[in-house]
Amino acid sequence: MLIEEAVRFLSQIPPYQFLEGPALRELAESLTLVFHPKGAVILQQEGPSGDSLHIIQKGVVKITLKPKGGAEEVVVDYRERGESFGLVSLMGGQQKTTAIALQDTICYLLPKERLNELVLTHPAIAEYLLQFHLTKYVDMTSREMQGKSLFLGSSDHLLFTAQVGEICRKVTTVVGPETTVCQAARRMAEDRQSAALVIGPSGGPIGILTDSDLRSKIVAQGWSIELPVSYVMSHPVVSVDEKDPCFEVVLKMLQGNIHHVAVTREGALRGMVTNHDFMVLQGRSPLAFSEDIERQTSLDGLAPVSQRVLTIIGGLLREGARAANIVRIISELNDRVVRRLLDLAEQEFGPPPAPYCWLSLGSEGRKEQTFRTDQDNALIHADVAEELRPKVEDYFRRFTVFMRQGLVRCGFEACPANYMASNPEWRQPLSVWKHYFTGWISDPTPEAVLKSLIFFDFRPLYGDEALAWELREHMAALVLEYPAFMGFMANMLVRNRPPLGFFGTVAVERSGEHKDGLNLKIKAVAPLVDIARLFSLEKGVRAASTIERLEALRGGTTLISERVDELEQAFEFVTLMRVHHQYRLMEAGKTIDNFIRLDALSSLERQSLKNTFRLILKIQDQVLERYKGFIL
Predict the structure, then answer these.
(1) How many other C-beta atoms are found inside a 10 Å radius of the C-beta of residue 508?
(2) How far apart are CA 151 and CA 315, in angstroms?
């Protein structure tokens, strides 16, 4: 009975749950069971190393560390059911920390010799144990989520596993720069190619002539077909290495609005890949949706296409995409919808009477939206003479109302707090926007800091981007001029503490609609976003997305420079968990929310969530110390 109970226990906790049946039973047979009463010191710092790894079957253990020099003992961690301790001492020969039973605790002991055999024969076990005890582990959690997702058993992983060299085609139409357009077009027709590469004297591609070039330049503008292709070709050629993953190439094509990419091997031309190749590869790719969006000439046509964009999330999850890749793809497609609608708005109301820039705010500005929730946008326009202001205001009033209503039809709900360009407050000339930011930063009231959190993540999406960058530079200068503002930003960060109890348990909602649930957006995503924003502002980083901000801080001098990998892994984990949760709700026809139930998570997911909370708490404590003069 004891062995059967040990098998059931191990089959439910990482990393042993990944063992096959016979190996799992063999491991269970090597365990012994020990009891530690409340208050017992199980392992003593600087004492001899144990001869076993302790796996907690019941109870809670506190891990403490007393630094050298008589410093006060600090709590390193709390371990509970399914977690282990003592690995570091097994490896190092001396106990590095103290382990104390906070409750009556029962542990399985895994002998050192058996542990050594296990890690030698099962690399995944070694990987997990080392990551859990020495750093933090997230990637395996992501793999587990993929494994138990709605799409278990699908084999359609090519977009995210194949390298572009595996699908590229040999270029059969190659011409020189002096070849005439007529000759090149004839060659393309004979070879049944949609493009011809133009090769320079060195043998490398210097341009590309596509069907689109022939339509937009030769036919539409009436250029002579006897012109050399060098006058008509698109250049420079976008090229990728044959080892680049297909997904990255798709994203590059989306961002650059291009349909042909040259594939190279060690710098030399190997072939070409087109949007059609990816559509064949995936069936219904993001590129296909992109083309559908671009083809629409009315709101009636755009709205249904936009509503279908979210359906590709299922395909991305099925292919094992990382959360960072999913939100980048969705953000690019959402941006396409908004830009196309802005084009339609200009067609509806005529050329704008003043240069303007459309801004995306919040998660949309950071390119971190998963499922569309509500609109977060604003509009900057150039300052104009007094007599022109009524005309400018009337135009942008009608323009932004059209955008709000059009975006609702395209699946973007109106913002309940009215943070939209249709609100006159958020549709202003550059001088007024500068005044806003000056007021928020020089006099950082709680309301001002709240608005800062929304507007500081702005991103120019359409129009005269110089207006947005001028505002960004104005903001960066103000942050340096008023250092007290950073203290108020820090205050907002540390007040949102993760719901981690004294014994390492996660607190959930006790009543109401979401009883036993946890708001993943507020308690996990938001603190990570706030951490990246705070230190980016501190260092003058201009990037808007959380991952780009963290990367810009890597190797620097901030408190988090050495924790970038941990923060990126944590952000990846909670974002992927959020995407999976929301997609299941959408598929079931339920209202999309951010509340996850802990009892629906695996042991590995729960442990990774706690690791994320512990990381956030550690950084918040450091921020508290650094900005203690400003924390309320």
Answers:
(1) 18
(2) 9
Q: Is the separation of the CB atoms in 198 and 230 below 8 Å?
A: yes
Read out DSSP for 539-582? HT----SHHHHHHHHTTSSSTTGGGHHHHHHHHHHHHHHHHHHH
Instruction: Show the tokens assigned to 493.
Output: 């960060």
Reading the block at residue 381, the tokens are: 């326009």
By CB atoms closer than 10 A (0-12, 13-18, 19+), residue 409 is middle
- Cα angle 119, 120, 121 (rounded to 5 degrees) comes to 95
CB atoms within 10 A of CB 71: 9
At residue 519, φ and ψ (nearest 5 deg) are -80, 100
List, for residues 86-119, the tens digit of each pLDDT value: 887 776 566 778 899 988 999 999 998 898 888 7
Q: What is the pLDDT of residue 623?
A: 92
Residue range 199-221, pLDDT digits in tens: 887 777 788 888 878 888 887 78
The burial of 224, by beta-carbon neighbours within 10 Å (0-12 exposed, 13-18 middle, 19 or more buried), is given as: exposed
pLDDT score for 453: 82
- Picking from 129, 114, 113, 106, the residue whose alpha carbon sits closest to that of residue 27 is 114
Fold of 2-134: Jelly Rolls (2.60.120)
pTM: 0.64
Give all strands (DSSP E) within 66-186, no chain letters.
74-79, 84-85, 98-101, 105-111, 174-175
User: Which architecture does CATH list for 485-626?
Assistant: Up-down Bundle (1.20)
The end-to-end CA distance of the chain, in Å, is: 56
As a whole number of angstroms, the distance between CA 272 and CA 263 comes to: 5
Measured CA to CA, the distance from residue 96 to residue 402 in angstroms comes to 65
Query: H/E element holding 41?
Result: strand 41-43
Site of tokens 């901000």: 549
Q: Exposed/middle/buried for 511, CB within 10 Å: 0-12, 13-18, 19+?
A: exposed
Unique residue bearing structure tokens 């980016």: 536
Residue 278 near residue 384, CB atoms below 8 Å: no
- pLDDT beneath 70, residues of the chain: 1, 68-72, 91-94, 127, 130-162, 247, 251, 254-255, 275-288, 315, 318-321, 372-373, 502-504, 629-632
> What are the structure tokens assigned to 450, written together?
């709240």
d(CA 196, CA 173): 5
Find out whether 323 and 546 touch, Cβ atoms under 8 Å: no
Amino acid residing at 208? I
DSSP 426-491: GEEEHHHHHHHHHHHHHS--HHHHHHHHHHTT-EEEEE-HHHHHHHHHHHHHHHHH-THHHHHHHH
What does the domain layout of the chain look like in residue ranges?
2-134, 167-273, 485-626
State pLDDT tens for residues 489-514. Answer: 898 889 899 998 766 678 888 888 88
Contact assessment for residue 353 and residue 388, using Cβ atoms and an 8 Å cutoff: yes
Domains 2-134 and 167-273 share a fold: no
Average pLDDT, the chain: 83
- DSSP secondary structure letter of residue 304: H
| CATH fold for domain 167-273 | CBS-domain (3.10.580)
Token couple for 489: 């930003």
Q: For residue 29, what are its two tokens? A: 């047979």
* Chain-centre distance for alpha carbon 592: 19
